[in-house]
Amino acid sequence: MATIDVTDQDFAGTIQENDIVLVDFWAGWCGPCRRFAPTYEAASAQHPDVVFAKVDTEAEQALAGAAGISSIPTLMAFREGVLVFSQPGALPAPALEQVITAVKDLDMVQVHAQAAAQSDRTEQA
User: Fold this and answer.
1) Are 4 and 56 in contact (CB under 8 A)?
2) Which residues constitute the domain of residue 72?
3) Cα-Cα-Cα-Cα dihedral of 67, 68, 74, 77, to 10°?
4) 53 given a catalytic annotation
5) Which CDD domains match (predicted)?
């Protein structure tokens, strides 16, 4: 599957409607972003079961701000609508593959339980 461009208008829907979504926050002027792009594209071809999304931080400044992006490129991974990975910096292909494998191998029952427990602690505070 090729990468898709997402905007503020379809970001939440993309995350909620797909099991696994990787999001690359980038900008055209960013050298590391341009170097990471072919690696990200290649991974998208190898993992058709994963949605590979891209957010242009210049065009989508409000979305980048809401996501807390302070450095680009930043890669985020969502599984079942839950943010499970976020890291700035361009990853080499083997490291990106490790992230994808780790996200696929997550025990989502445990992840959802931890998220619920965190939510309960936040509400009690």
Assistant:
1) no
2) 4-124
3) -40
4) no
5) TRX_family
Active site residue 99: no
Residue 60 predicted with pLDDT over 80: yes
**Residues of 57-69 as b/e, b for ≥16 C-beta within 10 angstroms?**
beebeebbeebeb
pTM: 0.91
Q: Which of 33, 55, 67, 72 is the catalytic position?
A: 33
Among residues 15, 21, 23, 30, the one annotated as catalytic is 30
In Å, how far are 27, 34, 42, 57 from 30, measured between CA atoms? 5, 6, 19, 10
Q: Is the pLDDT of residue 125 over 70?
A: no
Q: Where residue 108 sits, what CATH number does that domain have?
A: 3.40.30.10
Residue given tokens 């700035």 in the structure block: 88
* Total domains present in the chain: 1
pLDDT band at 115 (very low <50, low <70, confident <90, very high): confident
